[in-house]
Specification:
The structure holds 2 protein chains of 2 kinds. Chain A has helices spanning 2-23, 39-50, 53-72, 77-95, 100-124, 132-165. By secondary structure, chain A is mainly α. Chain A has one domain. Chain B is of the alpha+beta class. Chain B has a domain at 182-259: Beta Barrel (Thrombin, subunit H), CATH 2.40.10. Helix content of chain B is 32%, strand content 29%. Chain B has helices at 7-27, 35-106, and strands spanning 115-125, 133-136, 149-152, 155-163, 168-172, 182-186, 192-200, 205-212, 222-225, 237-246, 252-259, 268-274. In chain B, a hairpin with a 4-residue loop joins strand 4 (155-163) and strand 5. Classes of the chains: A mainly alpha, B alpha+beta. The A-B interface holds A 11, 14-23, 25-27, 32, 34, 36-38, 66-77, 79-80, 118, 122, 125-129, 134, 138-139 and B 15-16, 18-23, 25-27, 36-37, 40-41, 44, 47-48, 51-52, 55, 59, 122-131, 133-135, 161-162, 169, 176-178, 201-202, 204, 262, 264-265.
């Protein structure tokens, strides 16, 4: 039952990202800024931090693969990156203090890492042609602000929900 | 030494190999998606459809309220243009009849301009905004095929990149991809042919390259599809010229085109099927892909 709930929430985040992109693709936030919603990734990060590493990596891989297939049509990038970042996050949470502020900042930091790595991948595959400065100004900072707002709104409900589902039981 | 080959490192290496293989596989020019991909796309497309209905209802209502504010001004302007419209309409009717008559005389039935449209609603957009793609709610069951042109009431927006049974992905003209090209004409006294390839997303302008250097191109002239790529119908509006530059070797010109559609605000589209079949594969001498 709890996996069903978890999967349902993951699916909602997955679809909501696309609807958000469709609704706010225009000039809603200033002319040439590009805001990328990473809600699903933030869900995976929180799942890793408050659930278990295994769950985080598993959901990361499945959601990443679905994301690749449905949205970008270039297989492998998100599928590989999400579990990898989930693994790094679980490692870093062992060092860091486990309070919600630190968790939010870590999630934001890893969102930034994700965005930069995706940028580099697209440069390599020549699907993007902007310099790093332009990228930082037009994409990275607006994206981080959007996702920070999302993290602030959803961190507490997400934490409570994941803890209530009690996934800690089957850790590693 | 045995520590070096521990499980995690091995797993990492294997997954990097798989990653590279997968990217290579998906970058290939593919005729059709594999069935797991089609299944996933159809499933998420269905879920997206369910969520999209209430959301688009709400946004439609809000948009309607906003429109209501400008109604008075708009009405005034439209009234002023109404007379012009009647005149234009009679002229168009006249020209159409004449065109048909002449076609009849020549016994020429094929027309690159003719197409049959399929209405579709946009149910999603690629959230990672590197590949500008939309998902629409019509697929192979409704006759949507790969490479068909996609238009809105304002003009061309892109082409179908892949189609599954119930959904299709539309690659927008603004998407940066070497294979994303459209053969186009700049209208004017002296028609100029070129290819739409590339997008300046900072200024929001399309680039039309490979126009011969001796063509004089006026600003504000309209750009339409040529229909010579083999797939797109002729005469779909793309936009208008705002700037022209000669390329670095002086052999070609590049025109900057302001698209007639807003690529960031697309809700309803039409997928169009040209009535004249494309060029057969074995024929040679066609100079553009699509």
């Amino acid at each position: 039952m709890r996996y069903f709930i978890l999967s349902f929430i993951a699916l909602v985040f997955f679809v909501f990202e696309s609807i958000f992109a469709q609704m706010f693709a225009g000039d809603a936030f200033g002319a040439d800024k590009i805001l990328v919603p990473h809600f699903m990734m933030i869900f995976v990060f929180f799942l890793t931090m408050y659930g278990s590493r295994k769950m985080g990596m598993l959901y990361g891989a499945i959601l990443g693969l679905t994301y690749d297939v449905v949205y970008t049509e270039i297989l492998g990038i998100y599928m590989f990156l999400l579990p990898f970042l989930a693994y790094l996050i679980s490692k870093s949470m062992k060092i860091l203090q486990n309070n919600i502020l630190i968790a939010c900042l870590t999630a934001l930091l890893f969102t930034a890492v994700l965005e930069v790595v995706i940028f580099q991948m697209n440069i390599i595959l020549s699907f993007a042609d902007m310099g790093f400065g332009e990228f930082a100004e037009r994409r990275l900072i607006p994206t981080l602000l959007l996702n920070l707002a999302f993290i602030i709104i959803s961190c507490y409900p997400l934490k409570r929900m994941i803890e209530m589902l009690d996934l800690q039981g089957e850790t590693e | 030494m045995p520590q070096f080959f521990n499980k995690k490192l091995l797993l990492l290496l294997v997954s990097i190999i798989v990653l590279v293989a997968l990217i290579g596989f998906s970058l290939r020019e593919r005729e059709e998606l594999t069935w797991p991909e089609q299944f996933l796309k159809d499933t998420t497309g269905w879920v997206g459809n369910v969520f999209n209905k209430p959301v688009s209802g709400i946004t439609g209502f809000v948009g309607g309220l906003k429109d209501l504010q400008h109604t008075y001004d708009e009405n005034k302007k439209l009234k002023a243009r109404l007379d012009e419209y009647v005149l234009l309409k009679t002229q168009v009717q006249d020209l159409k009849e004449e065109n048909e008559e002449l076609r009849d005389n020549l016994k020429k039935e094929d027309d690159l301009r003719k197409y049959s449209p399929t209405q579709a609603t946009v149910i999603g957009r690629n959230p990672d905004r590197w590949h500008e793609m939309l998902t629409i709610n019509k697929g192979k069951r409704n006759g949507v095929e790969k490479n068909m042109a996609v238009i809105t009431s304002n003009g061309l927006v892109g082409k179908v990149k892949s189609a599954t049974d119930f959904t299709a992905s539309v690659q927008l003209l603004s998407s940066i991809d070497k294979a994303n090209r459209v053969s186009a004409i700049v209208q004017g006294d002296d028609k100029a042919y070129g290819l739409i390839e590339g997008f300046d997303d900072k200024k929001n302008l399309l680039l039309m390259k490979r126009i011969p250097y001796d063509k004089k191109i006026k600003k504000n002239s309209l750009v339409i599809t040529s229909g010579y790529g083999g797939i797109f119908p002729k005469g779909l509006l793309i936009g208008k010229v705002v700037d022209v530059k000669v390329d670095q070797y002086g052999l070609n010109q590049t025109a900057y085109i302001e698209p007639s559609t807003d690529f960031y605000d697309i809700n309803n589209v039409m997928v169009v099927q040209r009535e004249v079949d494309g060029v057969p594969k074995e024929s040679e001498g066609e100079d553009e892909a699509e």
